[in-house]
Known about the structure:
Elements: E1 2-6, H1 10-18, E2 24-26, H2 29-34, H3 40-53, E3 57-61, H4 67-78, E4 84-89, H5 92-103, E5 108-113, H6 116-125, E6 129-132, H7 134-139, H8 144-158, E7 163-166, H9 172-181, E8 185-188, H10 190-195, H11 200-213
Parallel strand pairs: 1-2, 1-8, 2-3, 3-4, 4-5, 5-6, 6-7, 7-8
This protein binds erythose-4-phosphate.
Residues 6, 26, 28, 111, 131, 133, 135-136, 167-168, 187 line the site of erythose-4-phosphate (E4P).
Amino acid sequence: MKFFIDTANLSHIKEAADLGILDGVTTNPSLMAKEGIKGNDNILRHYAEICSIVDGDVSAEVLSTDFDSMVAEGKTLAAIHPNIVVKVPMIKDGIKAIKWFADNGIRTNCTLVFSAGQAILAAKAGASYVSPFIGRIDDSNWDGIELIAQIAHIYNVQGFETEILAASIRNPLHIVRSAEAGAHVCTCPLASILGMLKHPLTDLGLAQFLEDAKKM
Ligand code: E4P
């Protein structure tokens, strides 16, 4: 399973990249706004900077919701760097745009996916990635991991090549359970990636080894 970091924060991206296990980055308008990135030039420059830190796919989201504007925006985003993947919302014009991008060699990430039906449409349109938001599904009292497993089953049975990108990760267990359920990629906040390192028995065991090493 590939590991993406879900942030627009450059120091978080650098810290995850330094671990040597980072395969890409996802951003969204909320994450960009959180970093105070404003204005078209700054937005494009920020994506370029992320691409210079990480050698892997970087999702950059379109801000418009009609077909023509999404295509125009997506072309500009894709021109920033070959690793840019255009992130398109799961709406009617978004599906049309994903098909257009697929036909024109531009890779896409279909975002805001909350059902298997939506995931089928995204795959049919030729999305490179589909992003089910598992944390938000759990928050609304449904089972996000169950959706990952259902999409994985459908894609497998139907031979769809779209990769399942588990998004809206809230904790390390979401990552483990997404891997188990068949996600090809997990996009996670830095805290969830670092959280996977932790186990009290590791800390206790290491403390004991270091104590005993003094007797060697
Ligand atoms: C995915 O690409 C989204 O950016 C993200 O995972 C949304 O997560 P949230 O529900 O924590 O906002």
